[in-house]
Structure formats: C-alpha cells, structure tokens
Amino acid sequence: MDKNTLDVNLDHFRELARTAYSFTSFDPDKRAENTLKEYGEELRNDLKEIRDKYPASVQRDPLDETLSRYRQKYESLFSSWLGSHSRLASSAVTGPANFPVARQQKYRSWEESKYKEFRDWRDRALKAITRRPKEHISELEEAKRKLADREELQRLMVSVNKVIRKGGANVNGQLKELGMSEEAIHEILTPDWANRTGYKSFELTNNNAEIRRLRSRVAMLEAKAILAKQDGEKIEDINGVKLIHNYLEDRVQVKFEGRPDQETLSKLNDRKFHWTPSKKIWQRKLTNNAIRDAENIVRGIKR
User: Fold this and answer.
1) What are phi and psi of 103, to 5 degrees?
2) Angstrom distances, CA of residue 164 to CA of 29, 172, 178, 245
3) Cα(273)–Cα(253) distance, rounded to whole angstroms?
4) Containing H/E element for 213?
5) Cα–Cα distance for residue pair 179/78, rounded to 1 Å
6) What are phi and psi of 242, to 5 degrees?
7) How far apart are CA 132 and CA 117, in angstroms?
8) What Cα–Cα distance (Å) separates residue 289 from each residue in 265, 272, 292, 295, 298?
9) DSSP-derived pairing of the beta strands 233-238 and 241-246
10) Are 50 and 24 in contact, with CB atoms under 8 Å apart?
C-alpha cells in the first residue's frame, strides 16, 4: 500500500465530530476521537482492500481514480452522518426539564437514515469495485458491438414481419430458418389485444432511433481515436493552470502549480473531477461538458 493510502485519516472532521456528540456524551472529545479512529481505520482498510483486489492488468491511473473517488464519497457521507448526529441530544446530558421528546425522535430518524445511507453505499461500492472485472474492451469497440446487434435486430424484425404478412403453411419453419426459437415464435405469432402479430411498428421505430444514436456515438468515438493517434493531447494555459485535453487517456486534466484554494477545490469536487496522486492532477472523462466545466473553473480563479 502506498503513502497516499497509509496517510488517510479523518482528523479534518475533528471539530464536526466533537460537535456531533456535544449533547449526547459527557465526554464529546473522547467520543469524537474514538469515532475518527474507528472510521479512519475502516477507510484505510477499504482502500487497501480495493488496491489488493484490483486486477494487476489494470493501469495505475484508473486505480488511483477509483481510490480517490471512493475516499471522497466515503468522507462526504461520513460528514453528512455526523452533521445529522449533531442535532441529537440526550436528556441525561442536557437534563430532563423541557426536553423536546417529539423533536428528538424526528432528529433520531434523520440520523438513522443518514447512517443507513452511508453504510449501504459502502457495502454496494466495495462489492462493485472488488468483484471480478468483465472483459475489457474500449468504448469504441463496445459501441460498435451494440450498433451491430441493433442493426441485426432491425434486419430480423423486418424479415419476421415479412414472413408473417406473406403467410402460408410453413410460417413456423421460415421463422426457425431466421434463427428464432420455438418460444419466440409462439410469442410473436400470438395476437395482442388488437389482434396484431409480429413486431409492432413502434418497436422498429424505437430500434431505428437507437441505431441512429449509436452511429453518431461511433462517429464521435472514432474522431476521438483519430485525435489520440495524431495529437495525443492539447494543452492550454489559463490563469497559470494547465488545462489538458488528453485524447490518449480520454481525460480532461487540470494541473495546478501548487495547492488550489478551497473554493476551487470545492468546485472541482462538485463537478466530479477526481484527484490522481500519481500524476498530481485533477481529471474527468473527456466530454464537451467536462471541458466546459474545467474552463469555467480555471477562468474563475481569482488572481
């Protein structure tokens, strides 16, 4: 495990944690200390598990992005839970006089909901990240496969409807020759509420629309591939910050000379940019929206 993972802690939430237990504990500082220690250790173990179970064939950058994204989300939900906990009070700590029982029941429900959201997300995220990866194919190859499947489906639907309209004694045999199973043949020949058989016109229309969308996506991804091969990357200097269109890695990257101010960091997080320690950059998948967001962030930096 590298230094970036070993150095993980939740000490920056110390004041929030102390406030969270101010009215529920006789020693909020100690309770806060124990909470930060417990969940900081859990976060370190989670990151270690992700790193250990990540396939060796996966390059470092995607792994760093995954670790950074997991840590940011974990801390966000942890902070949200502590914030909801700060509303809670114990009559043993505050005294029983005029204790708002009904209001505290409502706050307790909110706190439990936030905690459940936090823990449910962690369970789902760890399972999703550490499970055995599927075959790795490029976005372009995946889009081409989907397009080919949709085009083949369109040809099948047209052919099936043609056989059904023509009719005759051997409709079932002709549909089998098209590659349809007995079950599929039975379903397609069973009349619907309007006594119609075969594929409906809206099914062909919707599939055709998906074909057009996929053709447009394939063209866009092919253009990206050409840029990656020809140019590799495009670098702009805006307000002393490097804005990189990295076509090879399919990422928009933002590189600062030093640590950006808190306002800029908040904007990067809000716009789903992720810190990649190995490159010391913030990055996000290369899209027009990502480029626009990156430009707005760096142009808005106060000099």
Assistant:
1) -65, -40
2) 77, 9, 12, 53
3) 9
4) helix 201-230
5) 53
6) -85, 120
7) 25
8) 18, 11, 5, 10, 14
9) antiparallel
10) no
**b/e map 45-65, b = 16+ CB within 10 Å:** ebbeebbeebeeeeeeeebbb
> Residue 16 contacts by C-beta under 8 Å, 6 or more apart in sequence?
79, 82, 83, 86
Pairing of strands 251-255, 233-238: unpaired
Tokens of 228: 């990656």
Strand partners, 233: 246
Mean pLDDT across 123-140: 78
Q: What pLDDT does residue 60 have?
A: 45
For the four alpha carbons of 73, 76, 80 and 81, in that order, the dihedral sign comes to positive
Over residues 177-214, the pLDDT tens digits come to 999 999 999 999 999 988 999 999 999 999 999 999 99
Report helix, strand or coil for 148: helix
Coil, helix or strand at residue 95: coil
Q: Between vectors from CA 25 to CA 20 and to CA 28, what angle results, nearest 5°? A: 60
Q: What is the pTM of this model?
A: 0.50
Tokens standing for 187?
């379903």
C-alpha gyration radius of the chain: 28
- What does each C-alpha distance from 266 to 131, 239, 270, 271, 274 come to in angstroms? 31, 18, 6, 9, 11
User: Amino acid identity of 191?
Assistant: P
Of 158, 155, 151, whose CA–CA distance to 214 is shortest? 151
Report the amino acid identity of residue 196: R
